[in-house]
C-alpha cells in the first residue's frame, strides 16, 4: 500500500479533503499551520531575532490577517544568508537543494527535507489531476533539469500522479517530436516560446499535431505570456494549455495552476498564505487591484519563508470557483515591481547586460533594452551608444556587434539583437537613463 | 598623397543628417563631395570638405561620432574606361578597396577610395604615374 494513495480516475480531485475545503476551513487550517511555521522559524537565529524584535510568538496569530504583523522576507535576505543561513532544520535532515544561477551577487539556495519534496510532488500532482490527467496519461517534461526546479518538480509530481513520465529536458526539437509520437505523449510541460518552436519544427517535418500525436494537455509557465499567446498555442496543437506558476523559493512549480475554467490560477492556500500589497506602501490592496504578490509558505520544514516579496505584480480574481475549489484565484503575472526581465523563461537583470557592455571600450555607457513580442516569440533588442567611431569600415562595425552579441549570450543565455547608435541619441529621463522598455503584449 | 575625409556615424532616422549639415554650414565649411553607406540600423556619412581638421573638431565638440580617415583621391580623365583602368591597376597588385565613390572636379573625374594596404597603393600610384589630388587642391 502506497504512502500516497491515488484516487479513482473518476474523482475530480487528487486531494479531495484539502481541495474542496470551505473558506472557513481553509482559514482555520492556515492559522494552525502559520503558528506551526512560526514555531519552526524560531529555531533559526535570524528569524528568532526578527520575531523577538517584532514581539511575535506563535500565539500572536489568531486570524489569517495577523500574518501582517510579521516582517517581510526578500531575495536579498536569501543572498545575504547564502547558503544555509535561513535553514530551520539541521542540514542532516535536508535531502536536496536547488539554487538560482546567481549572476548578480550571491546565488540563492533553497533546501528541502524529504517531507518538503513529498509535499511539492503532491502539489504538482494535484495540479495535473485538476486539468484531467490520470495515471494512463503519458507526460513529457520539456523543461530544463538540474538546478532549475521546472525539471525535477514536474518529474516527481507527474510520477506521484502515476503517469508514465518522460524526462525529455529542454532542446533538441526533432527528438522531442519523436518522443511525442513514439511514446504516445498526451501531456507536455514547456515554456510557451518553446511550444511555438516545437510547432514550427513539426510543420517543417510534415507532422500534424492533431492527427499524428495524442497531445491533449499542455502545462505552460516560467515566462510571461498573454491570453492571445495561450489561444494560439491551443489552436496550433489542438490542445488545452494551462498556466502554471512556480518559484524556487516556495519549492518550484506547483504553487499555482489554472483549473479547467482557465480563469485565474488556484494558489493552494493549505500550503501558502497569499497577500497582494502595494509595492510602495506594502499595505494590502483590495481584491481586483494589481499589487505585489506576497507568499508565506506554511507547510515547509527546511526553509519556510515568511511574507516573501516575490516582486511579481498580479491581482486576486476571486476566492470561489465553479470547479468546486475555494482556493484563491490569482491573475496571470502582469509584470515585476523590480527591474528583473523574464524572457523565454530566463531571468535577467539589466545590470548583467551593463556589466558586459562596459567591457567594450568602443562603447559609451548609455544603453537601452527593448523587449518586443512578435506572433510567437519574445525578443530583446539592445541599443548601445558608440563612444568613438574607431573605424569607418562596415565589416569592423559588424564584427563589434558580433562580439557584443556573443559576450551577452554567454552571460544571459539568450541572443539579443544588437544595434549600435550614435553617442547621445538614447533617451534620458530626469537625468537618469531609461534602461528597459517592455513592449510585450502581456503587459498591456 | 592621402587626404583627410570625415567619416560620420549616423542613425537611420530623419534629422540626424540635417544636424551634421547644419553644424558644417554654420561654420562656413564647404562640402566638396559626400556619400552615405548604410545598413538596416545605421549609416556612415563620408564627407570631403575644405577644412577637414576644423570640421572634425567641431563635430566632436558637438558630441557626434566622427573619424578622420585617410583616403586617396585619384584624378582621372572623364572618359569611359578610365575608372576601371585605375581600379584594375591596383587590384592586379593585390590592393583591396574598402570603399569608393566618385565625383567631377574642374572637368576631371575624381575617384575617392580607401585602399588596403594603403602604402602598397601609394607605391603603385607613383610607379604607374596615376594622377591624384591633395588637400591643397580643395582649399
Ligand atoms: Zn477552479
Explain what you see.
The complex is a heterodimer of chains A (444) and B (139). Chain A has 444 residues and is α/β, with parallel strands linked by helices. Chain A folds into two domains: 16-338, Rossmann fold; 342-443, 2-Layer Sandwich (GMP Synthetase, Chain A, domain 3). Chain A has twelve helices and 23 strands. Chain A has helices at 16-19, 23-41, 45-53, 75-80, 114-130, 149-161, 173-182, 192-204, 209-212, 227-237, 350-357, 394-412; strands at 94-99, 109-113, 138-141, 164-166, 187-190, 217-221, 240-246, 253-258, 265-267, 272-277, 291-297, 308-314, 316-318, 329-330, 335-336, 341-343, 346-348, 363-373, 378-386, 417-421, 428-429, 432-433, 436-438. A nine-stranded mixed beta sheet of chain A has the order 4-3-5-6-7-8-9-14-13. Chain A has a four-stranded antiparallel beta sheet with strand order 10-11-12-15. In chain A, strands 20-19-18-23 form a four-stranded mixed beta sheet. In chain A, a hairpin with a 2-residue loop joins strand 21 and strand 22. Chain A is globular. Chain B is an alpha+beta fold and 139 residues long. Chain B folds into two domains: 3-70, VC0802-like (2-Layer Sandwich); 71-133, VC0802-like (2-Layer Sandwich). Helix content of chain B is 32%, strand content 40%. Chain B has five helices and six strands. Chain B has helices spanning 16-26, 52-61, 82-91, 118-127, 135-138, and strands at residues 3-11, 31-38, 42-49, 66-76, 96-105, 108-116. The chains are: A alpha/beta (444), B alpha+beta (139). At the A-B interface, helix 12 and strand 20 of A face strand 1, strand 3 and strand 4 of B. Bound molecules: zinc ion. Zinc ion binds at residues 259, 261, 266, 321, 323, 325 of chain A.
Amino acid at each position: 500500500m502506497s504512502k500516497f494513495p491515488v484516487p479513482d480516475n473518476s474523482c475530480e480531485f487528487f486531494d479531495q479533503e484539502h481541495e474542496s475545503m470551505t473558506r472557513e476551513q481553509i482559514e482555520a487550517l492556515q492559522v494552525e499551520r502559520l503558528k506551526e511555521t512560526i514555531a519552526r522559524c524560531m529555531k533559526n537565529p535570524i528569524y528568532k531575532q526578527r520575531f523577538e524584535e517584532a514581539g511575535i510568538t506563535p500565539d500572536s496569530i489568531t486570524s489569517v490577517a495577523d500574518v501582517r504583523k510579521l516582517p517581510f522576507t526578500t531575495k536579498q535576505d536569501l543572498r545575504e544568508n547564502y547558503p544555509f543561513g535561513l535553514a530551520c532544520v539541521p542540514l542532516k535532515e535536508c535531502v536536496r537543494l536547488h539554487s538560482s544561477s546567481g549572476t548578480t551577487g550571491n546565488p540563492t539556495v533553497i533546501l528541502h527535507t524529504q517531507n518538503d519534496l513529498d509535499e511539492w510532488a503532491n502539489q504538482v500532482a494535484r495540479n495535473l489531476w485538476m486539468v484531467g490527467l490520470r495515471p494512463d496519461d503519458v507526460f513529457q517534461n520539456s523543461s530544463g533539469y538540474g538546478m532549475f526546479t521546472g525539471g525535477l518538480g514536474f518529474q516527481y509530481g507527474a510520477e506521484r500522479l502515476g503517469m508514465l513520465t518522460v524526462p525529455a529536458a529542454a532542446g533538441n526539437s526533432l527528438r522531442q517530436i519523436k518522443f511525442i509520437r513514439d511514446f504516445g505523449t498526451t501531456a507536455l510541460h514547456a515554456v510557451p516560446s518553446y511550444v511555438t518552436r516545437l510547432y514550427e519544427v513539426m510543420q517543417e517535418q510534415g507532422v500534424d499535431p492533431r492527427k499524428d500525436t495524442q497531445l491533449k494537455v499542455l502545462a505552460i509557465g516560467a515566462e510571461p505570456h498573454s491570453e492571445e499567446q495561450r489561444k494560439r498555442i491551443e489552436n496550433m496543437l489542438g490542445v488545452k494549455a494551462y498556466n502554471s506558476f512556480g518559484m524556487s523559493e516556495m519549492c518550484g512549480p506547483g504553487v499555482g495552476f489554472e483549473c479547467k475554467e482557465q480563469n485565474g490560477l488556484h494558489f493552494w492556500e493549505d500550503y501558502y498564505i497569499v497577500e497582494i500589497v502595494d509595492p510602495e506602501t506594502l499595505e494590502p490592496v483590495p481584491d481586483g487591484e494589481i499589487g505585489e504578490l506576497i507568499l508565506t509558505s506554511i507547510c515547509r520544514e527546511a526553509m519556510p519563508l515568511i511574507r516573501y516579496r516575490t516582486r511579481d505584480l498580479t491581482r486576486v480574481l476571486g476566492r470561489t470557483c465553479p470547479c468546486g475549489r475555494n482556493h484563491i484565484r490569482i491573475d496571470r503575472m502582469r509584470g515585476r515591481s523590480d527591474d528583473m526581465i523574464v524572457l523565454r523563461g530566463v531571468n535577467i537583470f539589466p545590470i548583467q547586460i551593463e556589466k558586459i557592455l562596459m567591457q567594450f571600450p568602443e562603447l559609451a555607457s548609455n544603453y537601452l533594452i527593448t523587449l518586443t513580442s512578435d506572433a510567437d516569440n519574445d525578443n530583446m533588442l539592445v541599443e548601445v551608444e558608440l563612444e568613438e567611431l574607431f573605424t569607418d569600415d562596415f565589416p569592423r562595425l559588424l564584427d563589434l556587434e558580433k562580439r557584443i552579441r556573443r559576450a551577452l549570450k554567454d552571460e544571459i543565455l539568450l541572443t539579443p539583437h544588437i544595434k549600435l547608435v550614435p553617442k547621445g541619441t538614447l533617451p534620458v529621463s530626469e537625468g537618469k537613463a531609461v534602461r528597459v522598455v517592455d513592449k510585450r503584449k502581456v503587459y498591456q | 598623397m592621402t587626404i583627410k575625409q570625415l567619416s560620420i556615424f549616423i542613425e537611420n532616422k530623419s534629422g540626424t543628417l540635417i544636424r551634421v549639415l547644419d553644424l558644417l554650414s554654420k561654420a562656413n565649411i564647404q562640402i566638396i563631395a559626400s556619400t552615405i553607406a548604410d545598413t538596416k540600423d545605421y549609416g556612415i556619412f563620408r564627407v570631403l570638405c575644405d577644412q577637414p581638421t576644423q570640421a572634425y573638431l567641431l563635430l566632436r565638440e558637438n558630441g557626434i561620432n566622427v573619424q578622420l580617415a585617410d583616403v586617396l583621391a585619384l584624378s582621372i580623365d572623364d572618359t569611359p574606361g578610365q575608372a576601371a583602368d585605375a581600379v584594375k591597376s591596383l587590384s592586379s597588385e593585390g590592393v583591396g578597396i574598402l570603399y569608393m565613390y566618385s565625383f567631377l572636379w574642374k572637368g576631371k573625374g575624381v575617384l575617392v577610395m580607401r585602399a588596403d594596404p594603403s602604402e602598397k597603393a601609394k607605391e603603385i600610384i607613383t610607379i604607374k604615374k596615376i594622377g591624384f589630388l591633395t588637400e591643397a587642391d580643395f582649399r
